[in-house]
Specification:
Radius of gyration: 21 Å
Structural class: alpha/beta
Number of domains: 2
Strand order of the largest sheet: 2-1-3-10-4-11
Largest sheet: 6 strands, mixed
Number of strands: 11
CATH class of the largest domain: Alpha Beta
Distance between the termini: 56 Å
Number of helices: 10
Helix content: 40-55%
CATH architecture of the largest domain: 3-Layer(aba) Sandwich
Strand content: 15-25%
């Protein structure tokens, strides 16, 4: 009887171990613009013998609100400092783990083959440079839309173009609208524009026209132990650094 039970008991122990391991999957809430890079890094993490993290991508604003409401997240990666500040002020992240990890640039795009002249300077009549809508994230809410509005105001273009702006839930949605030609122009991150063969980058907005584009990451309060390891990997791994750079992000911290 004991010999008969031993394989069964071993199987139960193995299943229990695998279940426990699966329960340790790190739950990452990340800005939509990080989709491609973090998906690749998650695959690297899994290849290293770890449980694949669970990734949820959306606008930083939406994710921050979900975390505030108690959504089960271990880590938050925002596309701007404001939404990380929002959670920190409410005691929802571990402030000691917060790192300004990445940088990005803001670009003006158009559907492929439908370029128009755009000069990044005050005095240029941007609103008359093209017909149709301008897509970006919802101004005042979604980070890319916040940066876009800052840039348009700095260049003196905001008031004239405001009635034609289509504010979207996140940067990837804005990119998709331009890809389909539903918007004649778009303001997105350079990293998102680079993944599409259906849009053209026409120009880069001056860095001094908007706040620095910074991606802070931090652990959410009561994060699982595995989350600390994954955050350390994002911060210190040469493989993760190379992946972020391959996707066009600027590393604000250096891997050793």
């Amino acid at each position: 009887m004991r010999l008969f039970l031993r394989p069964f008991v071993l199987a139960l122990l193995l299943c229990s171990s695998l279940t426990a391991r699966a329960e340790e999957a790190v739950r990452v809430f990340a800005a939509a613009s990080l989709t491609s890079a973090l998906t690749d890094i998650a695959a690297q993490w899994k290849q290293g013998g770890h449980t694949a993290p669970t990734l949820a991508f959306a606008a930083s604003s939406a994710l921050a609100k979900q975390i505030e409401a108690g959504a089960p997240a271990d880590m938050f990666a925002s596309a701007d400092r404001n939404w990380m500040d929002y959670l920190q002020q409410r005691g929802r992240i571990e402030a000691s783990t917060r790192i300004d990890l990445l940088g990005n640039t803001l670009v003006l795009i158009a559907p492929k083959g439908r370029r128009f002249r755009a000069e990044m300077r005050r005095g240029f009549d941007f609103a008359r440079a093209f017909d149709g809508k301008l897509c970006t994230g919802e101004p005042g809410v979604v980070p890319v839309g916040i940066y876009a509005r800052q840039s348009l105001e700095a260049l003196g273009w905001w008031e004239a173009i405001r009635p034609r702006i289509v504010g979207t839930d996140d940067v990837r949605t804005a990119l998709n609208f331009v890809e389909r030609g539903e918007c004649a122009a778009g303001i997105v991150y350079a990293t998102d524009a680079a993944i599409s063969d259906k849009v053209e980058i026409m120009s880069t907005f001056p860095e001094d026209a908007h706040e620095p584009i910074v991606y802070p990451v931090a652990l959410v309060g009561n994060a699982r132990p595995a989350a600390r390891e994954f955050l350390r990997y994002l911060h210190t791994s040469r493989e993760a650094a190379a992946t972020f750079e391959r996707h066009g992000f600027t590393r604000l911290t250096s891997a050793p």
